Structures are given as structure tokens and as C-alpha cells.
Amino acid sequence: MKKILKKIARVLPESLYSVLADYYHDFFDKYPKITPLPHKVSSNLRNCYAWFENAAHYLHVNRMEGAYVEFGSHEINTFRFALNTLGNYKRWGYPGRIRHFYAFDSFEGMPEPHGIDKQKIWRASMNFTSEERFKKVCKLDSYRITTVKGFYEDVLPEYKWNNNHQIVLAYVDSDYYSSAIEVLKFIKDKLAHGAILTFDDWNCYYGDPERGEKKAFAEFKEKVKNEAHFEPFLPISFGGTSFIYLKK
After folding, report:
1. 197, 242 contact by CB (below 8 A)
2. What DSSP designation does 156 have?
3. Helix H or strand E segment including 212
4. According to a count of CB atoms within 10 Å of the terminal CB, is the N or C end of the chain lower?
5. What is the pLDDT of residues 52-109, one digit of tens each?
6. Alpha helices in the chain (DSSP H)
7. pTM here?
8. How far is CA 32 from each of CA 149, 167, 228, rounded to the nearest angstrom?
9. Could you tell me the end-to-end alpha-carbon distance of the chain, in angstroms, rounded to an integer?
């Protein structure tokens, strides 16, 4: 019977699959049609994919259940990594589930950098991936994805979060200090105990602790020091790092 159901899941038209999946999570969690991985990846991205596999192991062992949120989804690489590891329930089957995946992005490229966010590499409209392309690439997983379009200072304060979706992995690829501050403010009360908080651009700005995501995280830790603390998790290739969020 399982083999028959599996074959049916593979041949369903995408429109029908997406509708049914909203109502039959138990079946589709076991036999998901998952967005394919990128065909060609650099050694840096291979290391990043390995990090996601380790994160899936961690969530598996600790029976974590909730949502994956990504802030900055240019090229859709890390998002596809998340779908194929955290969202591959057949491979990583366990009582908990990462049932929903959020992509917060301007889908217009980066804003103009100002002040301490200025860096030789950054410029306005850089790292542009349209929302249309994102949805096209990830159409097989559309039933469990929410995209939120806009610059963080505009959309995050007003966004109506589903309180049933506690965050178990937040992937911050915001580049700028000003953007990271908005992200951390937004996720502060949504992180589950034991959640992984990840910074993709940790070593941008020459690793300067007074700039970029490092500065934003230092200020965030100070703000929540009476409520939570952080334990190191794993580095991500040459430029990123991650922490485990533990409530006191």
C-alpha cells in the first residue's frame, strides 16, 4: 500500500498536490515532493549544505518542532538546502516536524548602505532574486512556504505572525547591521527553547565586532541577558556561524 501511495504522490499535478497537502500533512510529510537542490554548487555551498545536515541531526535528536525562517534568500540556495534537510521527513523522520518555511526578503535586492553598513562589496539592488523566480523554483513545496516581500524595517513591525509556528531555526543572511537589528527584534519572542540562530555574514566587514551581524548580535544578547543565553553551535564555511538559544 505504501508503494502505491508513494507513486500517486509523485504523479499528482502540482496544483492538486498543493491543495491536498494543506489538508493531509501526515501523508505528505512521509512522501514529500521536494524542490531539487541546485545542480552546481561551490565548495562554500557544499560546506553550507553539510551545516544544514548537522542542523537536521540536532533538531532530530532534540525532537524540535516548529518553523524555519530565513531572512535574505538570494539565489534560493540555503532555502533549498533547508527544504532538503529539515523538510525531508522521509529521511529525517521523527515526532517533531519543521512544518512551515518562511522567506523574508525584499525580492528587490539590497537597500542602499549607509553609515557603518557601507562596504566595498555592497551596493543598492545587489543580490536581487525576484519573488516570482523564488516561487517558481520552490513550487513543489508551495504548500508549506510563505514569502514575505519588503525591506525589514517596513514589513517586520507590522507582520502578523502565526503564533502556532515557534521558530526552531532562524537563518539570518541580512548583511547589514541595520537589517540584522530589525530581524533580531522581530524573532525575539518567537524563538523556541533550543532554537538555532544562524548568521550567514558573521565575518563580513573584516570580522569587525563593531559592525554588521556581530554588532547586532552583541546588542541583542545584552538586551535578552536576563531571559536567555546562547551556546555556540557550528560555523558555516568561512563566513558564518550559529548559536543555540536557551531560555533561562
Report:
1. yes
2. T
3. helix 212-223
4. N
5. 999 999 998 898 999 999 999 988 999 999 999 998 866 655 545 788 999 999 998 7
6. 2-11, 14-23, 25-30, 43-61, 77-85, 131-137, 152-155, 177-187, 212-223
7. 0.84
8. 26, 21, 35
9. 47
Write down the pLDDT at residue 34. 74
CB 201 within 8 A of CB 238: no
Spatial contact of 211 and 205, defined as CB atoms under 8 Å apart: yes
34-247 architecture in CATH?
Answer: 3-Layer(aba) Sandwich (3.40)
Q: CA–CA separation, 162 vs 166, rounded Å?
A: 8
Q: 133-190, pLDDT tens digit by residue?
A: 999 999 989 989 999 999 999 999 999 999 999 999 999 998 899 999 999 999 999 9
Q: Rounded to an integer, what distance in angstroms lies between the CA atom of residue 117 and that of residue 149? A: 21
d(CA 223, CA 172): 18
HSE value, Cβ hemisphere, 13 Å, CA-based, for 14: 10
Q: Which residues are bridge partners to 102 per DSSP?
A: 69, 146
Q: CATH 3.40.50.150: which residues of the chain? A: 34-247
Cα separation, 200 vs 203, whole angstroms? 8
Question: What is the C-alpha to C-alpha distance for residues 190 and 219, in angstroms, rounded to an integer?
Answer: 18
| 33 in Cβ contact with 159 (< 8 Å) | no
User: What is the grid cell recorded at 197?
Assistant: 540562530
Question: What value does the CA radius of gyration of the chain take, rounded to a whole number of Å?
Answer: 18
Q: Contact, 31 vs 90, CB < 8 A? A: yes
pLDDT above 80 (res 12): no
Of 185, 128, 143, 145, nearest to 12 by C-alpha is 143
